[in-house]
């Protein structure tokens, strides 16, 4: 039986340390929106600079052409290297550039992928780049293929769950590390469960608490607060 084709864009990558990363590859639509946002920023700044430098006459125009050249070629490189792989446009779309193995993009990678942008743009409006992206499962344009980079979605920062407020009590019996973790996990998730489900899960540990129903839930949460050091 042939292997099923996944519809999502998650790509598992194993690091040399044996850790598996799951990269969510970005497709052409999100990347196009990021490019439009970056273009508006770049050319908006260049237009304002042109208005200011025209006051200097021919010398001002020469300075503007230098600024145009540097901005066109090095705007994305500097952002990608010094801003965790994300230009302002990519950051707005929650995207970033990394190497295909999940490592942060470096100077050689950023330079290669952006210098080849001129080839990707041919024959017009990223024609070659779009064909390349649609021809491989990681949506890599020609510059990405040459540099070994991919554009992925940035994972949102992890927010540490909090326990519901209340008293803290030491568990009546010693608990293993796994049991302590399960107890803390239950307390952290309790706010997302309906009362009946909370009581049902707490009933499994009624032998430890000697309580059932809502009282059992509150006692387990009190144990969890003690375990994490919340001795209010």
Spell out the key features of this protein.
two-stranded antiparallel ribbon; two-stranded antiparallel sheet; mainly alpha; 232 residues
Number of helices: 11
Q: Biggest sheet: strands, sense, closure?
A: 2 strands, antiparallel
- Report the principal-axis shape: elongated
- N-to-C span: 59 Å
Averaging pLDDT over every residue, what do you get? 86
* Structural class by helix and strand composition: mainly alpha
Strand order, largest beta sheet: 1-2
Instruction: Kindly report the oligomeric state of this protein.
Output: single chain
What's the total count of β strands? 4
Describe this structure in words.
This protein has 232 residues and is mainly alpha-helical. 54% of the residues lie in helices and 9% in strands. It has helices at residues 28-53, 58-82, 88-92, 107-115, 117-121, 127-134, 142-147, 177-189, 195-203, 206-209, 213-227; strands spanning 10-14, 20-24, 95-99, 149-153. Strands 1-2 form a two-stranded antiparallel sheet. Strands 3-4 form a two-stranded antiparallel sheet. Helix 8 crosses helix 11 and helix 9 (195-203) crosses helix 11 (213-227). The N and C termini lie far apart (59 Å). Residues 1-7 have low confidence and may be disordered.
């Amino acid at each position: 039986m042939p292997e099923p084709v996944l519809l999502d864009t998650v790509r598992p990558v194993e690091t040399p340390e044996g850790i598996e990363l799951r990269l969510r590859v970005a497709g052409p639509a999100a990347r196009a929106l990021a490019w439009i946002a970056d273009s508006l920023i770049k050319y908006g700044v260049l237009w304002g600079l042109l208005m200011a430098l025209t006051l200097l006459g021919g010398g001002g125009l020469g300075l503007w052409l230098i600024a145009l050249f540097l901005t066109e070629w090095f705007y994305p490189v500097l952002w990608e290297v010094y801003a965790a792989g994300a230009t302002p446009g990519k950051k707005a779309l929650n995207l970033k550039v990394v190497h295909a193995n999940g490592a942060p993009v470096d100077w050689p990678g950023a330079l290669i992928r952006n210098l080849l942008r001129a080839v990707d743009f041919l024959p017009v409006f990223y024609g070659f780049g779009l064909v390349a992206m649609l021809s491989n499962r990681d949506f890599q344009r020609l510059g990405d293929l040459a540099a070994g980079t991919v554009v992925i979605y940035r994972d949102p920062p992890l927010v540490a769950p909090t326990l519901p407020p209340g008293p803290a009590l030491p568990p009546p019996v010693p608990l293993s590390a796994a049991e302590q973790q399960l107890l803390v996990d239950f307390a952290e998730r309790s706010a997302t469960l309906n009362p009946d489900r909370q009581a049902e899960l707490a009933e499994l540990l009624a032998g430890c608490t000697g309580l059932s129903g809502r009282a059992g839930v509150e006692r387990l949460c009190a144990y969890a607060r003690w375990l994490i050091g919340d001795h209010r």
